[in-house]
Amino acid sequence: EPKKSLDPDEEYKLSGDLRELYDRLLPSKESEDRRTQLCKKLERILDEEWPGNDIQVNMFGSSGNLLSSSDSDVDLCITTDAKALGDMHELAKRLNKHGMEKVVCRAAAKVPIVKCWDPELQLACDVNVNNPLALENTRMIKTYVQLDDRVRPLAKIIKYWTKRRILNDAGPGGTISSYTWICMILNFLQRRDPPILPSLQKMRNAERSTANGQPSDFVDDVDALKGWGKKNNESLAQLLFQFFRHYGYEFEYTKHVVSVREGRLLSRTEKGWETNSIDNKEGRHRLCVEEPFNTYRNLGNSADEYSWSGLHNEIRRAFELLEDGCQIEKVCEQYEFP
Ligand code: ATP
Ligand code: MG
Fold it and tell me: What's the confidence (pLDDT) of residue 207?
């Protein structure tokens, strides 16, 4: 039987260590400035290459949701009406012309991207074109992160652990993306008792509109909602411990679906994602995480049986180390391939 909670002295010690780790993981002002510069620089390049068009470059992903580190890649989305920019091969060519290095074009990917490295600003970036959904789900994550002071350190520490243990690559034969982990973290916090986060998509609010006047799919009034979860006074250390306990031993992978949109767990049956469903392939995967906006998509579908079991073992490993009173550095020790 896995230990129910951390003892007070362990909790105290781990809390201190986590604070220290979190401070180290915060991006430097200098690295944030470089990200903004890269955005501006790309806008300049695109304006020069395709003059006379209205072209914007926005950061999304960790550069936009408060969960980046100094060494994170920059996710960039070009927003424009100019049709010519939809040709990813052409985009790749022009970026190369302006001194970008290691330019790789993934035109056939689910979301077509150009990957490149800026030697001047020392930043790697993934560029896509006209992907408003990515901007919206980034804005929603950022809103959740701002609602309670525990979300940012918890998510950053778990992300750090996933990187060090090589658990955040959704590519072929890989595990699951950072985005999927973030959804699992948010949903875990929505399900604490009492809850630390609400479902921003379920809340009713008269004024729901984004900055550009489009209707918003979620409540985004941070000032009104800040401190929503303060009836729950669990510490950062306790939450980290409980996160690993939950996904290591309590969450029933064959029955449950993580739903940030609903703010609770769905059963596979109510979701229509039964493991043996004939009409719907999404349920065939061991891990079910509903994409909060495109709810028919399972973010867990990048992990096959083999990688899921590796992932599950890693969650249990982390829990057991914390249970034994090991330090966070040990939990996040760099994974070495045998
Ligand atoms: P990291 O710092 O590890 O890069 P991240 O927060 O940038 O973490 P990613 O997994 O790189 O997370 O995803 C970047 C962004 O891309 C997400 O914030 C989200 O907007 C979008 N995204 C990624 N995967 C999906 C998906 N399957 N469906 C919709 N949007 C996605
Ligand atoms: Mg990213």
Answer: 56
Domain 29-131: give its CATH code: 3.30.460.10
- CA of 197 from ligand 1 middle (Å) equals 20
- Write down the domain spans for the chain: 8-24+134-331, 29-131
User: Which residues place a Cβ less than 5 A from the ion ligand 2?
Assistant: 61-62, 75
> Considering only the top CATH level, what class is 8-24+134-331?
mainly alpha
Summarised one tens digit per residue, pLDDT across range 176-203 is 999 999 999 999 999 999 999 999 999 8
* Residue 202 neighbours by CB under 8 Å, 6+ apart: 261, 262, 263
Which range (61-65, 157-161, 207-211) has the least confidence?
Answer: 207-211
Q: Which amino acid, 102? A: K
What is the tens place of the pLDDT at every residue in 121-160?
Answer: 999 999 999 999 999 999 999 999 999 999 999 999 999 9
Cβ(302)–Cβ(293) below 8 Å: no
Contact residues of ligand 1, CB 6 A cut-off: 60-62, 65, 67-68, 72-73, 75, 133-134, 137-138, 168, 177-179, 291, 299
C-alpha 11 – ligand 1 centre gap (Å)? 31
